[in-house]
Amino acid sequence: MIFDTDADIVALRGPVPLSHLFLRRFVGPGSNAVDATCGNGHDTRLLAELTGASGRVWAFDIQEEAIRATGDRLAQAGLSGRVSLIQGGHETMAEHVPATQTAIVFNLGYRPGGNRSIVTLPETTLAAFRQALQLLLPAGILAATVYPGHASGAREHDMIETWAGQLEPQAFHVWRMGQLNAATGAPYFILIQKAG
Asked: 85 by DSSP, 3-state: which?
């Protein structure tokens, strides 16, 4: 990506801005994309902006409040018509989404500002990751922010590291990125690209 002005430069503090940097590189007008954990709708809105009017976004969350917050954010931005909101677990995405996805994004853990006892779970996340790889087009990406700093997140981290580390290197390019000068247990970013 080439930056034209200083205003284009993004501070890469934490994994979410890094995730957005990759999404901006891979997702463009006409793309299909999934926000597997829509939360408050920030990733969904970005995907809807990037895919344009000719693309499509599917956004999942198990919480009614998350679907409502995401819907409100999209409506305020005039992007509602580009997104299908699905109140359901990300492990059901293969039931709703065609295998034509350019990017599938996960922001694991709990919804900021929401009930912290409602978290993503290792078992359903693993099922969703497996489905995501099947739904991606060649050269498509799975972009995930992982939060190992709480009990469920630590189990999720262990599951992701084990599973992703065993993916066939000729079929998938797997990257783990995190800040070296952050606290132990800080969130980090996983990128999996399906080979072209």
From this structure: strand
CA 68 to chain centre: 19
The pair of three-digit structure tokens given for residue 50, joined into one six-digit string? 């990037």
Residue 124 has φ and ψ, to the nearest 5°, of -75, -35
Buried b or exposed e, range 89-99, using 16+ CB within 10 angstroms: bbbbbeeebee
**How many Cα neighbours within 13 Å face the side chain of 86?**
19
- Are 23 and 105 a contacting pair, CB within 8 Å? yes
- Cα–Cα nearest to 195, from 168, 175, 177: 168
d(CA 15, CA 161) in angstroms, rounded, equals 16
pLDDT tens readout for residues 66-111: 999 999 999 999 999 999 999 999 999 999 999 999 999 999 987 7
**Model confidence, pTM:** 0.93
| Cα(176)–Cα(15) distance, integer angstroms | 10
Longest CA–CA span in the chain (Å) reads 43
The tokens describing 99, both together, are 């295998």
Q: Does residue 128 sit in helix, strand or coil?
A: helix
